[in-house]
From TrEMBL:
CDD domains: PilT. This is Pilus retraction ATPase PilT. It comes from the Bacteria. Belongs to the GSP E family. SUPFAM superfamilies: P-loop containing nucleoside triphosphate hydrolases (SSF52540). Residues 123-257 form the AAA+ ATPase domain. One of its GO terms (molecular function) is ATP binding.
Length: 364
């Protein structure tokens, strides 16, 4: 058994989400959002390299030494699967591992807004699930894909780096491809995906212009495409996609995106009020003729108004969902304040006075 397997088991037993292996510290696990040390020796350059390379195939080790970072997946029987990122930093080799739950949680178990089920029932269009690293995007997407798997017959292609959730074939046929193992890049995998007769494509990351462009082309072919971006609001997501293109292509991109975009779900994770876990807060934007017109005209600042007036369809701003979570006592006002767009909504009377004073001074 590899030395690091014992660390993975401890992380799983304690309910941790990530394992950090950095020289100068003992192994650290992220537990309820905080880094907690394991009762293990401090890692040295020699010990860390020995522990980390013990689980790396030779091709991944060669890739790490040549490119100075490497992604892979690692499975430990009886414990789980892990998303691994190896890299070099100023002290030497380091790595971060995220546990991938073996059980795919349902939309109901995740307490996601009911509109997410509606989004899962779409038959075409572009759906983007966004948020910072560690905000649960992959878990939410896995729940959406699982819902499709249980409710319709379809061919689903997932393109990931690395492969995370492994979906069993229920009502759907799955083709799951891992970058570096089954395809050279997201763009290469997307370029041929449309020839593989898919109904649904999940793109693990839309990180570059070529990948975004190919995803939009797949949508034009009538395919339902899910993707992720590291943005924290619907408006910033649309800006990010358009700004990925050269200025002389942005007008055309706005037109394509206006026709393609079916939904944006921006997500953040917050500590629950009982301190025993975390829950998701979501901003939800749904496609409409009004949204398409705003995107074509480049009036992205009006998206907040579209969301606020679309509550009957299930749309909500991040602050609206945070307000609901505070009302239901699932999170504290302090937790909401930390993640809110409009801080004064969740400030105490004294803090609110100070906030408004600062805002007035800033605007003077």
């Amino acid at each position: 058994m590899a030395i690091i397997d014992a660390y993975f088991k401890k992380m799983k037993d304690r309910g941790g989400s990530d394992l950090h292996m950095t020289i100068g510290f003992p192994p650290l696990i992220r537990f309820r959002g905080e880094l907690v040390p394991l009762d293990e020796p401090v890692l040295t350059p020699d010990s860390n390299r020995r522990i980390l390379t013990e689980i790396m195939p030779s091709d991944k080790l060669a890739h790490l030494d040549e490119n100075l970072d490497c992604d892979m997946a690692y499975a430990l029987e009886g414990v789980g699967r892990f998303r691994c990122n190896f890299f070099f930093q100023n002290r030497g080799i380091a790595a971060v591992f995220r546990i991938i739950p073996t059980e795919i949680m349902t939309l109901e178990q995740l307490n996601l807004p009911p509109v997410i089920r509606t989004i899962a029932e779409f038959r075409k269009g572009l759906v983007l699930v966004t948020g910072p690293t560690g905000s649960g995007k992959s878990t939410t997407l896995a729940a959406i894909i699982d819902y499709i798997n249980n409710t319709r017959n379809a061919h689903i292609i997932t393109i990931e780096d690395p492969l995370e959730f492994v979906h069993p074939n229920k009502q759907c046929l799955f083709t799951q491809r891992e970058i570096g193992t089954h395809a050279r890049s997201f763009a290469d995998a997307l370029r041929v995906a449309s020839r593989e007769n898919p109904d649904v494509i999940l793109v693990g990351e839309m990180r570059d212009l070529e990948t975004i462009s190919l995803a939009l082309t797949c949508v034009e072919l009538g395919i339902l495409v899910f993707g992720t971006l590291h943005t924290n609001s619907a408006a910033k997501t649309i800006d990010r996609i358009i700004n990925a293109f050269p200025s002389d292509q942005q007008a055309q991109t706005r037109t394509m995106l206006a026709d393609a975009l079916s939904a944006v779900v921006a997500q953040q994770l917050l500590k629950t009020s009982d301190g025993k876990g975390r829950c998701a807060a979501n901003e939800v934007l749904l496609g409409s003729p009004a949204l398409a017109s705003i995107i074509r005209d480049g009036k992205i600042s009006q998206i907040s108004s579209i969301i606020q007036t679309g509550s009957a369809r299930g749309m909500q701003t991040m602050d609206q969902h945070l307000t609901l979570l505070v009302r239901d006592k699932r999170i504290t006002r302090e937790a909401a304040y930390e993640k809110a767009i409009d801080k004064k909504l969740f400030a105490s009377s004294e803090e609110n006075h100070g906030y408004l004073t600062r805002e007035n001074a800033r605007n003077a």
